[in-house]
Amino acid sequence: MTSIAKPKIVHPGLARNALGFTVRDYEGGMSTLCAGCGHDSITAAIVQACFELGIPPHGVAKMSGIGCSSKTPAYFLSASHGFNSVHGRMPSIATGASAANRGLYLLGVSGDGDSLSIGLGQFMHAMRRNLDMLYIIENNGVYGLTKGQFSASADLGAKTKKGEENRQPPIDPVQMALALGGTFVARSFSGDKEQLVPLIKAGMSHRGFALIDVLSPCVTFNDHEDSTKSYAHAREFNLRAIHADYVPPAEEIMAAYREGEVLPVELHDGSRVLLRKLAEDYDNGNRGEAIEYLRARQREGEIVTGLLYIDESHPDLHGVNGTVETPLNQVPYADLCPGPDALAALQKRFR
Amino acid sequence: MTSIAKPKIVHPGLARNALGFTVRDYEGGMSTLCAGCGHDSITAAIVQACFELGIPPHGVAKMSGIGCSSKTPAYFLSASHGFNSVHGRMPSIATGASAANRGLYLLGVSGDGDSLSIGLGQFMHAMRRNLDMLYIIENNGVYGLTKGQFSASADLGAKTKKGEENRQPPIDPVQMALALGGTFVARSFSGDKEQLVPLIKAGMSHRGFALIDVLSPCVTFNDHEDSTKSYAHAREFNLRAIHADYVPPAEEIMAAYREGEVLPVELHDGSRVLLRKLAEDYDNGNRGEAIEYLRARQREGEIVTGLLYIDESHPDLHGVNGTVETPLNQVPYADLCPGPDALAALQKRFR
Amino acid sequence: MAKQQKSRVNDFVLKIANVNGTGSASANSLLMKTVFRMGIPVSGKNFFPSNIQGLPTWYEIRISKDGYLARSGAVDLMVAMNSQTYARDLQEVAPGGFLIYDSTWPRDRLLSRPDITIIGVPLARMCNEQFSSARTRVLMKNMAYVGVLAALLDLDRAVIRTLVEETFARKPTLIDSNMKALELGYEYARANFACPLPLRVKALNKTAGHIMIDGNTAAALGCVYAGATVGAWYPITPSTSLMDAFKGFCERFRKDPKTGERRYCIVQAEDELAAIGIVLGATWNGARAFTPTSGPGISLMTEFLGFAYFTELPAVLFDVQRVGPSTGMPTRTQQGDLLTAAYASHGDTKHVLLFPRDPRECFELAVTAFDLADRVQTPVIVMSDLDIGMNDWMCKDLTWDAAYRPDRGKVLSAEELEAAKTFHRYTDVDGDGIPYRTLPGVHPKGSYFLRGSGHNQYGGYTEDSAEYQQVVDRLAKKWRTAATLVPAPAIRRARAATKWGIVAVGSCDAAIEEALDRLAKQGIYADYCRIRAFPFGKKVTQFLDQHERVFVVEQNRDAQLKTLLLAETQYPGARMTSILHYGGLPMDYRCIMEALQQAAAPGVAA
Amino acid sequence: MAKQQKSRVNDFVLKIANVNGTGSASANSLLMKTVFRMGIPVSGKNFFPSNIQGLPTWYEIRISKDGYLARSGAVDLMVAMNSQTYARDLQEVAPGGFLIYDSTWPRDRLLSRPDITIIGVPLARMCNEQFSSARTRVLMKNMAYVGVLAALLDLDRAVIRTLVEETFARKPTLIDSNMKALELGYEYARANFACPLPLRVKALNKTAGHIMIDGNTAAALGCVYAGATVGAWYPITPSTSLMDAFKGFCERFRKDPKTGERRYCIVQAEDELAAIGIVLGATWNGARAFTPTSGPGISLMTEFLGFAYFTELPAVLFDVQRVGPSTGMPTRTQQGDLLTAAYASHGDTKHVLLFPRDPRECFELAVTAFDLADRVQTPVIVMSDLDIGMNDWMCKDLTWDAAYRPDRGKVLSAEELEAAKTFHRYTDVDGDGIPYRTLPGVHPKGSYFLRGSGHNQYGGYTEDSAEYQQVVDRLAKKWRTAATLVPAPAIRRARAATKWGIVAVGSCDAAIEEALDRLAKQGIYADYCRIRAFPFGKKVTQFLDQHERVFVVEQNRDAQLKTLLLAETQYPGARMTSILHYGGLPMDYRCIMEALQQAAAPGVAA
Ligand SMILES: Cc1ncc(C[n+]2csc(CCOP(=O)(O)OP(=O)(O)O)c2C)c(N)n1
Ligand SMILES: Cc1ncc(C[n+]2csc(CCOP(=O)(O)OP(=O)(O)O)c2C)c(N)n1
Ligand code: SF4
Ligand code: SF4
Ligand SMILES: [Mg+2]
Ligand SMILES: [Mg+2]
């Protein structure tokens, strides 16, 4: 069947952003995911964040791999170009897109299977390049689309519906990112819109690779009693360690914070994130400590969320390459072709 | 040309191990690597370690990917079966070998390109499975065989011979292993046989995935002045943090150690490693701390070596699977085929 | 009421349109199983979407006293449970046919057809009145239409009850609720319509000695019986259920009675590149190992397949084909991977392929695949497809010869090595192109260095042209030997002599068999060669040469089987006519009939 | 002294046997360049090992006043610097030929041949006496034999000096030491042997308007001139030097004069799967992007190639072929990837291939490749090989038409989109099977969802047979359109009418041209069609149909080009004869001559 287009009825009263768009303008086709799937909440958060950021919808390129999670780009930003890659290879597509068209906002959506099994290599190398993109992992601990096999993010001791137990340590994208030198490392929960929306806005504005690992329950295959990726579990054990508020460029900080309570970090576009520690014992300036903290809490079953690490000082792919500001796909041919005389001159070398 | 077989002249005086083999019996074909290549020293260390361990040479299976480093299995243990896989895919071969033939000692040799670029995914997943093998990365920061391009382990600021600078953070297999839950994590230097040989012996005896990341200079493409992977650099900045002595099964600990100086760790085959701290401030019981320590030293240009982390408590692939002790390739067919009656009975289900 | 079809006992097609995730699957197989147990040949085809919940799904059941199990191409009775697709479902019903819908909600008056009978049953209302929980109501609606059909088609309710009891043996409470829902529909139909319809079933005894099984389950069983101990895979539709089944069987047959230890090891790999690598690592060590996958997986295994060909490692792959290219339509069927599988990987490479026609052959050819892989020391790919792999087919009981012993091919034992003067891995000792191999850990003399780079007949590294050529020329010779070892084609001769032949592989078979019977009635005859393996072998070339004109029937756009025939036989392309079906639904006999009728039509040049 | 060959001026083969890592490469190209600058047609083939130091390496220089640049298959003068391979090097010398060796060490008396002239020069001793450092001594030995050859072959020393000066322009001190070593050899030869030999060179003026260049460098230049901005790669022999060259040219031509910012972006990917992904991400955004690789890389790109075919993304690949299967012989040449490249990936997929015959065509066809990829919206693979890619070939100067503008194909601009009522990505508006595309960020109306899963002509997701078929049928139509757009074959007619034709691709050309000339002298005539692209197009089928018998010349074991001809044309296989050369060394004219002579021999059925 053909994908279902949602009718766009714009209520006259609907709020408009700086560009005059309503939130409707950031929505996409009707979701074909299971009712209650965590992924749909993340879709909603993305719509909200892009609306609030006031990005022109067609200024975003949305990319994904294969999986239920990777289907979601069809459900938001229908005015954006979408790229549904092959399984696990979205990071390379994003790399090419960034190389060719640095003017775009790149938004990648993936799953734990897509990014941590078949796609682990590409995921880590895109991060190593500090590719300028927001990379969201919709993490449910299973392969949803292929009906519920354990993924590499399944926790030790986690059980399938049938009671099978996972006895392999999980690959935690956040710990990997911390150890690899990721410049924007966050974790959240699909049910925590209040935390997720500002994270997405900050991630979009970060110049470099912004990772948000979002715990996103699979109601059909991994939302049962002994699941460590269920709604119930997430709600009970979500430990908000460090909250990030997003403040757009040239807007002064309204909310009154107590002295030393928040740490403002300026992003390349002039916007800021205000980091507010919720867990006093969490040290967000130290990768190793952060990892240790995550592991310790994890042993207690707790899931540490928030903007766990941020570092604006590293160059992205183009910073390293020293590329012209004009996106390469817009450099006129005349500036690319050396012409006949240069060719003639060059050939002296070959005689 | 065909590979060169080394003549085996056995000096009568040559020492013999428990099985009556001399060190010659553990050697292989003549190396075709560049004179002075670090990889050849590692080859020598492997020969020495296997001789001292007294393993029957044909009880080892040696595997590799593609690269100068991956050629080395042809230069040791000529009585062992060798498997020169395709580029970056040796871990999957090792997984299959382990699954089918748990009786073997599995020894994998790879390069930084082979394991950290094309092979990163397989490398990490083999580690996650705690595959029972010794995995040696002969790490020189470049692709030797393809003439010296930077590999993913090239350090920030490292320069090629031509003066090109690397501005991407390195992928450090040791930090990855620590964050991923690796059960035997070590680093060494090809020039430090005294440290390397016992590490190899311990790694062979460890039940589970033993990683040794060996700094192994490429004299042809990465041994110059501004290289951070040169002999000179390694010698100057090698920080031995924690030394591991290997004590074979049923041999009491001879050397006299001062009280609390050494921590003995028992391996599954009854052998022990004696951990001796050389850097007082290094905490070998804490993954996050270890990572932080490595990163801090790295910022000072120092390379932390030794048996940085060990944990014997985790099950390997077969422990998780609950496989019979008899290697699967030796289970008689009669024990595998349910026979005609079972088939007849079974089919009721399909009527 | 529309003019009735003439009575059609045990010969019609029933189709249920529904939404996936509503539990209709069990109701549908209950229907099919009932017919099967009533002794009437039946087949069911499931057309499901590539998602988990909420999209359209269809189940098509063909009831055929003559045992024709391919699709007929027509629908006689439609159960239209999905309002989303109601309009097209209505259109699909053959003139004179029937349509059942849920009359709880009014039906659009425009959506009607004068030439068919439309039967409304308030399924939702009935269930809502009888059952409380929302989920139960949804599920029971399915049982209710089964009840309606029981009345309309005259299904044996005793059989139904037994099946329900077997299904819910573990949750007896469900038995009553299901039977209750069933009765609801049954009674309503009896009360409101003339039952049974002219379209109905009548018990026969034509299913004895048969089972209903899907190809993936049968293939998994083949792997168990062949003695496979290592399975590596990465989940992908439509191959996933193969490994699920293998695990299930192993849990039952491969656990040490005393210790509970496992005599098998399944590795869920991180991707397909790893899955095939794991298989090769295992076969290198002499275990029988396999990996089930589908098109995208085969593409990812390409590099390793060439490696295995060149290093001469056994491996068994199952390519349960789906619609390509690329991700394509994962829940639709096709035979689109023939070329890729045959020549996968760069350089001069060729791979042995086997083509099962149904689940029974999935079982048999799985065993053959392991024997061939060991004997020829090369990958063998069993080319199944979604239709065979995931649909339930009626086939003869599976049988097993207790005398079977695996053919492990030329593997040298410790004793043989001890006795041998020397061992060289790649020397053609016997002149059949197949060298001897050894296994790690067996004997020092057996050691050799396996490499995908250039090697000579002694296994040594080489960059010498003559030494390299000697090895690849022997591989070509081995390929010719393989052609003598693979299963012969199944050949069906027409009742009358004919210069026409049909050539096909795999799941086209049922449709072809039916088409040939029907054509024969019209005096159109053709012999039929069902190729079961690549390389093709003498019997195939003989068949070709015996026929002036050959129709090549296959389920892909580019006539891939024809390409293989052109490449590997001398038969001229000018004498081949392609019959291509590649929309993604299982083949029906009509496209074949039409093609041959056309060719036979006067004035058409042969 | 052995009986001398008759005088052979400007027509002989010189071969240097050495050990790699000893710096002989520069000495050898100095030799070749000298001959070239003396106006004499020359070619050099480098046979090097797949390692970095210490293994045998050979350099074969053919000097041919008639401009024949393929290998001749014989060696007239061998410089045997490698004791490891001395024996076989000695054997390779043609009767009446010459061998030069380093007489510093005594030569085994057994290693001799009465029928050739053996010349001993104490190269090592001379250099050890003159130079101190070990490394210099090794290097200078090479210059010393150049000196010896200068005397024996009568090379122009002025030319040599200029070349040396150019080479070491940046390190003038090296000029003297090199010239000194050269003089050593020169003087010794003059003093001890009758110089020049009957085998010698004599200045001509047949190289004006020509250059000596390798195919990878030329292809890289083509990428620069075509306006490629994104290059993604993973290093692999023999393709690596292509990206190295591209980087070099970009550093020279693509840096903003003011800011020094780069107008290109090269990404060294983590592997080939990523490299092709990066290319597709870039072309999706409208940049011209490419990736150079070799066989193993193509195998790894298989899945993405099928994706690009189905989603209709442009991409340019260079497959610099090496010897397969698997890792094979990375430093030897072959045409073994034709089949894989043509049909890479599962499902019904076909890819456009281009076949350059030499470096000049690498330059030209690189540009064509980008235009075709954009026009047809599909991957285009330039099928080069190690012989073309890494050896220096003498070819006509490269020229560039200032009027050239890239053909970006059917890309809608913001204005066009603004004006358009609707946009549908996969609709065949013009009837040529090629739809219109849009680029991200250009205009909201242009947005569409690109997916490798089933889609309809509007770009919407589909699992519907009819919608799916409409799209793949259009792709087949697009393929037929592509056949009308690709470069036509180069056809050479024999001087006399003939029913014989030769068909080949790529680097077989030079050998074929020479063979045809020589055969013509013997009264054996054949026309010659050098295919330059796949799909083949009308001119190719016409050529086939015009000939009763066709010889298909290719460098692989399995006659892959013949297979493509069988699959894609109507020409009967029975009339094709394969001439296969696949040992890994560049083709020489002899195997072709012999095949045709045989076929022409009386009593041989045509
Ligand atoms: C090459 C390849 N292998 C396997 C598949 C089958 N497949 C589709 S989605 C998927 C896993 C998806 O898991 P995840 O990324 O966690 O997404 P989720 O459905 O859980 O959101 C797999 C294995 C495929 N599409 N392609
Ligand atoms: C699929 C594939 N891609 C590329 C290559 C080319 N290649 C051979 S070795 C190598 C890199 C080796 O680097 P590393 O593993 O560090 O080994 P080293 O030579 O440095 O010891 C590459 C890219 C290959 N053989 N196969
Ligand atoms: S299967 Fe799981 S992940 Fe997929 S849509 Fe349903 S709930 Fe979401
Ligand atoms: S190139 Fe480097 S890595 Fe390779 S053999 Fe030589 S020194 Fe060793
Ligand atoms: Mg998931
Ligand atoms: Mg390296």
How would you describe this structure to a colleague?
The complex is a heterotetramer, with two copies of chain A (351 residues) and two copies of chain C (606 residues). With 351 residues, chain A is α/β, with parallel strands linked by helices. Helix content of chain A is 28%, strand content 20%. Chain A has eleven helices and twelve strands. In chain A, β7, α7 and β8 form a beta-alpha-beta unit. In chain A, α6 runs antiparallel to α9. Chain A is globular, with a radius of gyration of 21 Å. In chain C, α13 (359-376) links the parallel β14 and β15. In chain C, the strands form five sheets. In chain C, strands 11-10-12-13-15-14-21 form a seven-stranded mixed beta sheet, sandwiched between helices. A six-stranded mixed beta sheet of chain C has the order 3-4-2-5-6-7. With 606 residues, chain C is an alpha/beta fold. The longest helix of chain C has 21 residues, at 172-192. Chain C starts with 7 loop residues before the first strand and ends in a 6-residue tail after the last helix. Chains in contact: A-B, A-C, A-D, B-C, B-D, C-D. The interface between A and D is large, with 63 and 78 residues. Bound molecules: thiamine diphosphate (TPP) (2 copies), iron/sulfur cluster (2 copies) and magnesium ion (2 copies). One thiamine diphosphate sits between chains A (66-69, 87, 111-114, 138, 140, 142-146, 151) and C (234-236, 272, 296-297, 300, 327).
